[in-house]
Amino acid sequence: MLKNYWTIAWRSLVRNKIYSLFNVLGLALGICACLVIYLIASFEFSFDTFQQDKDRIYGVDAGVPGGAGEHDHWNCVPGPMPGAMRREIPGFETVAAFQRISDNVEIPNGPEGKPKRLDDAGAIAIAEPQYFDIFHYRWLSGNAATSLNRPNSVVLTASKAKEYFGDLPPEKVIGKVFYYEDSLMVTVTGVVADWTGNSDFNFSQWVSYSTIPNSFWKNQFPLDNWNWLNHSSQVMVKLAKGVDPAQINARFVAFAKRHLDAQPGFAVRLEPLRDIHFHPGDEGPRKSMLPVLYTVMGVAGFILVLAFINFVNLSTAQSIQRAREVGIRKVLGGGRRSISIQFFTETALLTLAAVILAVLMVRPVLRIFADYI
């Protein structure tokens, strides 16, 4: 019996090709648009959701007076501030300063023993050892406690170690040396596994923070200057268990007055890890704007509603033309239930075809709009 319903439904749709085509295309376009927007939104909201203790991890956001009585927010703070935070503000389990850079790299003994030069080494962080107490990695060689304790030390991800030194085992990469900007020699002290999740902190190498005062970076990142214009550090913190971020924000008021009173309007607050991806002032990877993302999600819902309305309208118009068919079926003994099942079967076929077509369209659409999204 069920096979008969499907056969009749198929014949009916084939007989009304134009109606079927418009109904399937209209619904498929609406579903495709929603799927694409869903994939974009789910991608943007997936950043750093895999981090351990993510609800206790915060970035330090500095606000300075801007135009129209508003504050411009920066994710960089004066160089001495991380150390002062550790000494003067209780409630932190860990405080870690780091700086994003991108430098040229020269490897004197690269893959197959040949020199290698990279004009852009990718995402590099100059980081304090505490960085690895906040963001956890699986260590393939070396360890979080000692790998960044000494100047001119560097930790690499497994993929970066392979790029620099070929297929050497992680333990044999330890002790290898290379140069930043042709002059700063660093020694590999650790190798970590690459993250598989999306992150705004997806660095491929970390140089010890103590390298700054012992290298040409000391002019670029002044660690003893409280002037916010010389914002030289980004800071991530992990709060102690049970500490409310509002308590820390309140303590920041007195802290800013004590150290930054000569800079009126300077304010500091904690920014949750989940919000950092949407902070337009951050350096690093491009940022998506949360209001725009919510607007696009609303547009997706509106498009889907329009697709549904269009589908219902076309089906209603077609049902008027099929009134004679319904009458004949009743005369021949067809009951209300069997006729309803027949029409539901046709609707299911149309919907299934629209969903399949929408899924097939998603990848080409994403490819077409790749530069925009």
Distance between the termini: 48 Å
Largest sheet: 13 strands, mixed
Alpha-beta content class = alpha+beta
The geometry reads as: elongated
Q: Helicity, in percent?
A: 40-55%
Report the uncertain regions: none
Give the radius of gyration. 30 Å
Describe this structure in words.
The protein is of the alpha+beta class. It has helices spanning about 1-15, 15-45, 80-90, 130-135, 160-165, 170-175, 215-220, 245-260, 275, 290-320, 325-330, 335-370; strands spanning about 55-65, 70-75, 90-100, 105, 115-120, 125, 140, 155, 175-180, 185-190, 205-210, 235-240, 265-270. Helix 1 (about 1-15) packs across helix 12 (about 335-370). It is elongated. The mean pLDDT is about 85.
Considering the chains and any ligands shown, give keywords for the structure.
single chain, 373 residues, alpha+beta, 13-stranded mixed sheet, 12 helices, 13 strands, 19% strand
In brief:
The protein is an alpha+beta fold and 373 residues long. It is built from twelve helices and 13 strands.
